[in-house]
Design brief:
8 strands, eight-stranded mixed beta sheet, 13 helices, globular, about 290 residues
Length: about 290
């Protein structure tokens, strides 16, 4: 049965009612973007504060936060779905990082202040929209992507090898065969009545995820083009992204100096559960790239 036919297996009325009820419950409970007020409060007593940057690509407005430390290297943190740059707000505050690199975190297309509500399903197009940001910051450049941010940093390494010097993928969704086939709520989420009732942030996320397996399939012949240092960190108790994505990455990164770090007892939320490990891996990779 085709992927499209799988997507049109509608759930029963009880499932649809569940979506409506769940959407109403979570609509007031989750915030995936830091408000300007929260931003000022968060950085009020911190030694360094990132600044907001915007640029336009053919009418599509993109936004990122930039902490310019006058360093000769840059770290770019790319969030998953749903999310915003503020998923990595704490990483701007680590002196072990900002003493060696400039810190950057974008709102991915459709999220935060990057043309909010206009999601881009194509990973290639998302990569293209973030290219001007990468070109504007000093190299070497290491991209760190969490969850859906993982395949995006891989896609950027495939599309722009001359711009990217290293990638670190945290709990990344990479293998199209491991994407859930029976996400029964994704097609109903696109129905007008369900979409109206669901929080907008989840509708935006849904537009990315419903086509993700197809986007990952398009990347399959491009993996051999990645020749830069690459690390995958994956938790064995990840309930959101299949742990099998780690061995998949190991099998696909055939031409890259690679490290696969598998944490048997860890879950999906690596950026906040494993800060020390992630910082150490960033510093190790930066030294490798610089030949130190």
């Amino acid at each position: 049965m085709s992927n499209w036919k799988k997507r049109i297996r509608f759930g029963c009325l009880g499932s649809i009612l569940f979506i409506i009820i769940l959407s109403q419950v979570v609509s007031g409970c989750f915030s995936f973007s830091m408000s300007d007020k929260k931003f000022e409060e968060f950085y009020e007593n911190r030694p360094h504060k990132p600044v907001s940057k915007t640029y336009d690509v053919d009418g599509y407005e993109m936004h990122y936060m930039y902490q310019d430390m006058n360093q000769d290297a840059s770290l770019v943190f790319i969030h998953g779905t749903p999310g915003s740059w503020s998923a990595f707000a704490g990483y701007f505050d680590y002196d072990t990082l900002y003493n060696v690199a400039n810190i950057v975190a974008p709102d991915r297309p459709g999220f935060g202040k990057s043309s909010y509500g206009k999601p881009i399903k194509s990973l290639e197009e998302q990569s293209m929209l973030m290219k001007p940001m990468i070109e504007a910051i000093p190299s070497p450049r290491i991209l760190i992507g969490h969850s859906l941010g993982g395949p995006i940093v891989a896609r950027m390494a495939m599309d722009y090898p001359e711009l990217i010097d290293g990638i670190i993928m945290l709990a990344p969704a990479l293998d199209p065969e491991l994407e859930p086939e029976e996400d029964w709520f994704r097609v109903p989420m696109r129905w007008p009545i369900i979409g109206f009732l669901a929080p907008k942030i989840f509708r935006i996320s849904n537009e990315e995820l419903i086509f993700l397996d197809e986007e990952l399939e398009l990347m399959l012949p491009l993996w051999e083009g990645i020749e830069i240092p690459s690390t995958v960190i994956q938790g064995g108790k990840d309930d959101l992204v299949h742990p099998g994505n780690a061995p998949f990455a190991d099998s696909m990164l055939v031409n890259a100096p690679k490290r696969i770090i598998f944490l048997d007892n860890q879950n999906h939320f690596l950026p906040w559960n494993e800060e020390e490990l992630i910082k150490a891996e960033i510093l190790r990779m930066l030294k490798e790239i610089k030949g130190l």
